[in-house]
């Protein structure tokens, strides 16, 4: 069965699948940056950085504003929150598995301590 999910989640996870774009988002979490500033850590051209920003814009993760000749970008975290909500469903799965593992290990520890006290 295919889960009914918002279509833009595909664009969000596509955007997040690239390490350069994830690094750009990390930079933008500290505040607004120009495309030149986003490109600098990667020794990337303006055109190359602009293509990455366009993917982030399409996913709704970044908003771009042109002031004069400079393109300023800022993070739009609302779509990240939607992606987190989707991942949270699977977090519940892992939390349940880890709780079961923790209970099993505690039971084994208790059993070995009881066995050690008998000898």
Layout of helices and strands:
Elements: H1 8-16, H2 19-29, E1 33-34, H3 35-39, H4 46-58, E2 62-67, E3 70-75, H5 78-118
Antiparallel strand pairs: 1-3, 2-3
Helix pairs in contact: 1-4, 2-4
Could you explain the architecture of this structure?
The chain is mainly alpha-helical and 119 residues long. 66% of the residues lie in helices and 12% in strands. The protein has helices at residues 8-16, 19-29, 35-39, 46-58, 78-118, and strands at 33-34, 62-67, 70-75. The protein has a 3-stranded antiparallel β-sheet with strand order 1-3-2. β2 (62-67) and β3 (70-75) form a beta hairpin. α2 crosses α4 (46-58). The longest helix is centred in the C-terminal third of the chain and has 41 residues, at 78-118. It is elongated, with a radius of gyration of 23 Å. The model has no long low-confidence stretch (mean pLDDT 90).
Name some characteristics of this structure:
single chain; 119 residues; mainly alpha; three-stranded antiparallel sheet; elongated
Distance between the termini: 55 Å
Mean pLDDT: 90
Major beta sheet summary: 3 strands, antiparallel
Strand order of the largest sheet: 1-3-2
Uncertain spans = none
Count the beta strands. Answer: 3
Percentage of residues in DSSP E strands: 5-15%
H-E order: HHEHHEEH
Structural class: mainly alpha
Rounded to the nearest angstrom, the radius of gyration is: 23 Å
Broad shape = elongated
What proportion of the residues is helical, as a percent range? Answer: 55-70%
| Helix count from the secondary structure assignment | 5
